[in-house]
Amino acid sequence: MVTALSLVGLLLALDVGHIAASDGFAYDAHAYWLASGYGLRENAANAFVYSPPILLICRVLGSVPWQVWLELYTAAIAIGVWILAGPLTAFLVFTPWVASEITLANIHVFLALVAVFGLRWPALWSFALLTKVTPGVGVLWFAFRGEWRKLGIVLGVTAAVAVPTMILAPGLWADWIAMLREGAPQGAGGVPLPIRMAVAVALLWIGARRDWPWLVPVASMMALPVLWGVHGLSMLLGVVWWATRPLVARRDQVSTQAA
């Protein structure tokens, strides 16, 4: 029954992704495909706001036709939702925070995957640090638990990806840093980033002390640079992943992470 429901969820998620690709509504995916550079503010159409290594990767991937890119990208998000939600995908895919993430085609689901599986494979955190940057605060989980080797892996892999582009394309880094300094408006009613970062750090400390890894995706979500609409809440799929693990499996996962 659970397996059948999980399969239905995967098919529904892929269908939502296909509909989004067919409508061409994937606002964020188009910015990634175009990879136009750092000449636009974050809230402008087709603005690219991630680090130079990600920009260069997107320019390579953007060589494929737009419709092919869009179908593959939305399918990847749908599969990410299914990995995190399993049999609950059939229900969660219709919630505003998941459906809007698939249709807008941002990277929040991938960040949720990092927040879950990056505790076992810390190199994954380089994705968060080189894209939205601030959700990478989740690496403090390792510091608060004294897992210095894993923290070193995060920093080492991130440096290995970033440093070559700093040497070969320093201008891109200067443009990216200038864009980050300019920033983007939080929006009406938004909680300022410094306050959310402080809350995120506190959550990580509590989670690390109490063996509550489900707080890592919550903290990373709180640290998003800007909270646009509801689709950032799709990062809470990381909590769903932990909630659907059997208690023994959860304890084993934490023990493995600490090893």
What features would you describe in this structure?
- By secondary structure, the chain is an all-alpha fold.
- Helix content is 67%, strand content 0%.
- The chain has helices at 2-23, 27-34, 52-61, 66-85, 89-92, 96-104, 108-117, 125-130, 140-144, 148-168, 170-182, 193-210, 215-222, 237-243, 247-258.
- Helix 4 runs antiparallel to helix 6, helix 4 packs across helix 7 and helix 7 (108-117) packs antiparallel against helix 13.
- It starts with a helix and ends with a helix.
Describe the secondary structure blueprint for this structure.
Elements: H1 2-23, H2 27-34, H3 52-61, H4 66-85, H5 89-92, H6 96-104, H7 108-117, H8 125-130, H9 140-144, H10 148-168, H11 170-182, H12 193-210, H13 215-222, H14 237-243, H15 247-258
The rounded distance between the terminal residues' Cα atoms is 35 Å
Mean pLDDT: 86
Number of strands: 0
| Poorly predicted sequence stretches spanning 5 or more consecutive residues | none
Give a quick set of tags describing it.
259 residues; mainly alpha; 15 helices
Brief account:
By secondary structure, this protein is mostly helical. It is built from 15 helices and no strands.
